[in-house]
C-alpha cells in the first residue's frame, strides 16, 4: 500500500472520534455502527470526516498513510464489539464480488457530487 490510497467506510455509522496524534495510531477515525459495533482506521495521511458526521458503507473517509508510530504506509483496521477487539475477518462479505463493491463505491461518490466525500472538505494533519 502506498500513501494516498482511498480508505472507504465498511458500514453505515456515525464518526465517533477523529484523532491526530504524533505517536501511537497517528491520524485515526473511530466509527460507531450501532448495536455495540465500532470500527477503527489508523495511520491515515488525510481525514475526510469530522466527529458526529453520518457516513455510509463505501463512502471515502480518508487516505492511507504512515502517521504515528508506523514504519511504512498501511491501514490499521479494527472491528470492536462491545469494547473488545475482534477478528475483522469474521465480518468480510465474501459473497460480494469486486465489481459489486466497485459499483457501490462509485454510487457513493456520485451521491456526494464530488467523487470524494459529500461534505466538500478535507482535513490534512501530520
CATH fold group: Glucose Permease (Domain IIA)
Low-confidence stretches: 114-118
Structural class: mainly beta
Count the DSSP helices: 1
The CATH H-level superfamily is Glucose Permease (Domain IIA)
Query: What top-tier CATH class fits best?
Result: Mainly Beta
Distance between the termini: 18 Å
CATH architecture field: Distorted Sandwich
Averaged pLDDT? 88
> Largest sheet at a glance?
9 strands, antiparallel
Radius of gyration: 14 Å
Q: What is the molecular shape? A: globular
> Proportion of β residues?
35-45%
The number of domains: 1
The SSE string, one letter per element, is: EEEEEEEEHE
Helix percentage:
10-25%
Number of strands: 9
Structural account:
The protein has 126 residues and is mostly beta strands. The chain has one domain (6-119): Glucose Permease (Domain IIA) (Distorted Sandwich), CATH 2.70.70. It contains one helix and nine strands. The chain has one helix at 98-112, and strands at 6-8, 13-20, 27-34, 37-47, 54-55, 60-64, 76-81, 84-86, 123-124. A hairpin with a 2-residue loop joins strand 7 (76-81) and strand 8 (84-86). The longest helix has 15 residues, at 98-112. The two termini are 18 Å apart.
Features:
mainly beta; Glucose Permease (Domain IIA); 38% strand; 126 residues; single chain; 12% helix; nine-stranded antiparallel beta sheet; globular
